[in-house]
Amino acid sequence: MTQQSAPAPAPAPAPHGGWAQGGTVFAGVLMLVNGILAVLQGISAIATDDVYARINAYVYKINLTGWGAILIVLGAIAVITGVGILKGYEWARVLGIGLASLSVIFQFMFLPYAPIWSLVMIAIDFFVIWALATYRPAADFGGPG
Which of 25, 51, 67, 78 has a C-alpha 20 to 30 A away from that of 39? Predict the structure, then answer.
């Protein structure tokens, strides 16, 4: 008698989209780092008013101390949210989308003070929104387990 081996089972499809899963981890790291940078940016805006360009005639003019306070508060919340995203908490994903959306608005308003930085941050925020919005845990796909 010849012994036939059973065919190898087909690999199970990944329960998470590869880009979305990796993107979610990356989004969590970006939120964490972005939060730390926002806190530092806010501290520098409060500490010395000459760190950023002075804008005299601007529709969304807020003094730099005001911008600094906004950045520190949002940055601290972003750090907590980034840690929550990395731990896989659903609330953090939802809050992360909201924070990244607020960040797009505030970075748009901050454009005259730091144009290149603001544009880079807007692009990063769009990626974070996409990654957090497209990620679906394994339970949503009926994956293994």
Answer: 25
Please tell me the least confidently modeled range out of 28-32, 37-41, 126-130, 132-136: 132-136
Q: How is residue 103 written in tokens?
A: 């960040």
pTM of the model: 0.70
What backbone phi and psi angles, to 5 degrees, belong to 17? -65, 135
Separation of alpha carbons 47 and 50, rounded Å: 9
Give the model confidence (pLDDT) of 99-130 as tens digits: 999 989 988 887 887 789 889 989 989 999 99
How crowded is the C-beta side of 119, counted as CA atoms within 13 Å? Answer: 3
What is the rounded CA–CA span in Å between residue 91 and residue 93? 5
- Compute the distance between CA of residue 68 and CA of residue 124 in angstroms, rounded to an integer: 20
Report whether 113 contacts 52 (CB < 8 A). Answer: yes
State the amino acid at position 17 in one-letter form. G
Would you report the helix, strand and coil content of the chain in percent, each value rounded to 5? 70, 0, 30
